[in-house]
Known about the structure:
255 residues, alpha/beta, six-stranded antiparallel β-sheet, five-stranded parallel β-sheet, 8 helices, 11 strands, binds adenosine-2'-5'-diphosphate
Amino acid sequence: MNNNFQKVLSVSKWTENLFSFKITRPKDFKFKSGEFVMIGLPGETKPILRAYSICSPNWSDELEFYSIIVENGPLTSKLKNIKKNDKIILMTKSTGTLILDALLPGKRLFLFSTGTGFAPFASLIRDPESYEKYENIIVTHTCRNINELNYSRSIVNECNSNEMFQEIIDGKLTFYQTTTREKSDFFGRITDKLIDHSFYEDLKIMPINPDQDRVMICGSLEFNNDLKKILIEYKFNEGATNKPGEFVLEKAFVG
Ligand code: A2P
């Protein structure tokens, strides 16, 4: 079987059911920022593997993942107990559509996520190539409650506080978080905020337009479909890795 074991370097718990962890990256493991890979743990008869977006940018020495704990989930109910120095299976091939190459050139890049769908964007907003290709990157994250936004906040804080990143990002990164069940500064579904224009008003930006803007979507199936509908009304064309377009989407994976 095409897999190998990697060592867990650290585990961070974000809420009762959200955690992230870092593992060693084999020297020959190549990936594009925004891609996912199968990872897992040994099972009774065969390994239990699931698709996980890689949160690390492609230049990183480590591989970081962000996971929800699914009650009775075959993998996450075990994965939630991992600790430093434990071993995790990492398959050798990464793939996915949320990559810069799947989009035509543009000026602004919008990254819309819900829940663990933020993971591929944690990779892309830490990749210098994103800032070479776009004048502005606007990343949004929507969750039910405020504490579920802690991980994305910490990644963006890392971007804004690290000297090397500051130089690369050069004020191009905008972050917008909304909650839907607990009151916060920005309350409501991002889809509703796009429709009623409060998203543009809050950020003081022009509405999205396929002539200059590119979009990536990562969340639940319903979220992806609803946002796709909005983009199609705006006349955006969907892209793929073999046919770049104006937007791409991928379902957030749940272990
Ligand atoms: P809501 O609380 O209004 O359902 P979930 O935890 O169900 O995966 O959802 C994560 C976040 O995504 C929640 O804030 C949820 O809002 C939001 N969401 C779920 N479905 C959609 C959708 N179809 N369009 C926009 N936002 C959605």
